[in-house]
Amino acid sequence: MDDVQDTFPRLLLQHARVRPEHPATREKDLGIWQTWSWREVADEVRALACGLAAHGFTRGMHLAIVGDNRPRLYWAMVAAQALGGVPVPMYQDAPAVDFVYVLNDAAIAYAIVEDQEQVDKLLESRAEVPTLAHIFYDDPRGLRHYEGVTAYDRLVEDGRAFDRAHPGWYEAEVAKGRSDDVSVMLYTSGTTGRPKGVRASHAAFIAAARGGCEFDRLDASDSVLSYLPMAWVGDHLFSVAQWLVAGFTINCPESGDTVLTDLREIGPTYYFAPPRVFENLLTQVTIRMEDAGALKRWLYRHFMAVARRCGAEILGGKPVSMADRLHYALGNWLVYGPLRNVLGMSRIRVAYTAGAAIGPDLFRFYRSIGINLKQLYGQTETCAYACLQPDGDVKLDAVGIPAPGVELKITAGGEVLVRGPMLLTEYYNRPDATAESIDAEGYFHTGDAGFLDDSGQLKIIDRAKDVGRLASGAMFAPNYIENKLKFFAHIKEAVAFGDGRDRVCAFVNIDMGSVGNWAERRGLAYSGYTDLAAKPEVYALVRECIEKTNAELAHEGELAQSQVHRFLILHKELDPDDEELTRTRKVRRGFVADKYAVLVDALYAGRDVQHIETLVRFEDGRSRMVAADIVIADAKTYPALSGKAA
Amino acid sequence: MSGPTRGAGEVILALERISLAFGGVKALTDISFDVREHEIRAIIGPNGAGKSSMLNVINGVYRPQEGTITFRGAVRRDMNSHDVAKNGIARTFQNIALFRGMSVLDNIMTGRNLKMRAGILEQAIWIGRARREELANRLKVEEVIDFLEIQHIRKTPVGRLPYGLQKRVELARALAAEPTLLLLDEPMAGMNVEEKQDMCRFILDVNEQYGTTIVLIEHDMGVVMDICDRVVVLDYGKKIGDGTPDEVRASKTVIDAYLGVAH
């Protein structure tokens, strides 16, 4: 190898030289996995970059990228970078109104999008986005009669012509790139206020990717499934930065609905998923096992008990008795191996989860059947790279040790600060926000409250600003309580209230899949979410979960005061389209509290039932008022058992 | 965005003075209308008006006692099912007619049956022409699967699918035959609003992308008026209206017979 490459376009050229025929990208199209080698990808990116240049794209410009995980959209990112431009991936499921803000904030003039759906949304926003002049689309279906938009194929054709007319031009452009140039702009999910554009340099993402690859020994032989939103920092790290650093293969699923099948066909070696994906997988396994024959059910139950007892210890290299080892080996042959295969996880060496807290049962389940599931911690601002869990020291309630190159510090107030090469360059057009989050010593303020445990792993309690006080002065960490509730399969979302109040109350969203299945089993008829959520049987089910949580909280010192006294099940599912959740599905607590102020008041006023009307926005953009009478229930609380931390 | 931009093409199917009776029951009486290339033509009418009978006449299932059918210049007394399929006419059914135990993929492959030339022996030992044909046909089927966005159920047995998806699979099978004229018998019956919207989009896309001429029977007036170019209205086996959706909507006879406005 000649030298260490310091920008993504140069990394791409290096792979094309070093491993020209090694598969770089795969996509399942028309039922068959299509493969592009590094040489082909480099060639395509070159043509695409030249095409963009032929259409007037120049250094420093922003290129909006909208769509599902398509190879051409990933390539477009590198093409923009090759020209010294900045790709701005956007959440593809956002409605047109949400596009307007980002498009205007980033002053987007060029956009490459997947299909007609995205073209329509951009054209709809165009009235309010004067800068947006060039729209390119990948899939031509339904777009034949559109005017003022250009096909990707045409763009590449123009690029090849431009390249022929300007020999050496592309190489010169790539050579102009510097490692501290901004490589990408990712918008924060905006749990609070408007999204901010986080600008990260080539150097930052390359440092984060190299650190991760060394930590987990990832190389060109690895394979990942790229299925998470391209606008999310995690996907950018795994499917772009680490892809170009390690030179492994990214695989794009056929469609969002086929991810599970595609996962099984590809059998990735390196896998990343938020807890909700692992949870869905486990729910499916559980449901299917309940429908299985008696012998299979017995085998599953028996060997899962064995796995629970010793599986995670065997994976972690801890001492385990010979009898248990043999028992586990038999289970591996009969149950765990086939199960890993069904989940598409037979070849996984490293799997990560992050983005939200993962339930203890869930985490233990995957580790116990031999999947090396670990946690990591990071933000958009730190290229999703701050803490990682090392093999052999994986814990449920911590997020790992500081990653290579990362310095970590906890303030007196308990806030987590990090410093290192992976930090953002700045927030776009927000010097105030940049100054606020990076202090004089160069530490980034994560806004998370946490502490380091005995073994040096970071434990996160909650968002620092969310940590409040009950009227009694006891600490109130809403996320902590909500996560405990969400660990129950029947509870999909929870919102806890208590700051400045005398006690804690909560909203709950039931999980339609899990509770629906439970209801079917009991012959409980229901017409939809609202109907099911209002059933007294479902209330009893949720109350049971809440009381279990209360029993746990009673053991946790100061948090014993945070037991949930009253709760209600919301009549609709919290939804990003109604602005109740962020696009990454985090609850916007303040917004929810304002929107449902009537319900919060009813909880604290001790009422038993409350009428409410809510405006619901449907996927096609229409909206309708939904009215319901919501029952409010009490839950049993337990006396605090002091001195014992759970 | 840009709405359907289908021009009025040549007349490819003309029905003249068609009458059909089952014993004493007159299903269709003296009906004439035509279908132009690339258009979406709807047949509407109350229950028992003769809509499905009309489709069955075009499709060669029923032989009318009177009248002539002109398809692509050839004048006939009636159509023959096999010829119909060979001539590029495909259809879907009011009650889904798929092989419930077979996978979605296999069901759609049956739509390619007429395109296969290889004999039973060749197919059985999977060599030469049989192999090439199967691959080519599978590619076409995969294009249809992609077009109708049913990749995720490719290997699922049809019997396990919800109704709306089964309807889509049936459309896929019809499309796999690469029809020039597509007959749809109540493609949206029993669907919820979202499924109906999807189906509308697919019908318009098929029409636009492949230029397929479509004749459809539908109960949902909103759907009919939104997506079709011209409408024939039947009532008790007689034609009582024919024209663009606006014309039909304005016709007094049609309103009285079908749309049922208070008067």
Oligomer: heterodimer
Strand content of chain B: 15-25%
Radius of gyration of chain B: 19 Å
Sheet/helix structural class of chain A: alpha/beta
Distance between the termini of chain B: 38 Å
Anisotropy-based shape of chain A: globular
TL;DR of this structure?
The complex is a heterodimer of chains A (646) and B (263). Chain A is α/β, with parallel strands linked by helices and 646 residues long.
Note the main attributes of this structure:
heterodimer; A: 646 residues; alpha/beta; 5-stranded mixed β-sheet; B: alpha/beta; 4-stranded antiparallel β-sheet; 24% strand
Structure description:
The complex is a heterodimer of chains A (about 650) and B (about 260). In chain A, about 40% of the residues lie in helices and about 20% in strands. Chain A has 21 helices and 28 strands. Chain A starts with 7 loop residues before the first helix and ends in a 12-residue tail after the last strand. In chain B, the strands form 2 sheets. Chain B has a 6-stranded mixed beta sheet, sandwiched between helices. In chain B, strands 2-1-4-5 form a 4-stranded antiparallel beta sheet, covered by helices on one side. In chain B, β4 and β5 form a beta hairpin. Chain B is built from 10 helices and 10 strands. Chain B has about 260 residues and is of the alpha/beta class. Chain B is globular and about 60 Å long. Chain B is about 40% helix and about 25% strand. Classes of the chains: A alpha/beta (about 650), B alpha/beta (about 260). The interface between A and B is medium-sized, with 19 and 20 residues.
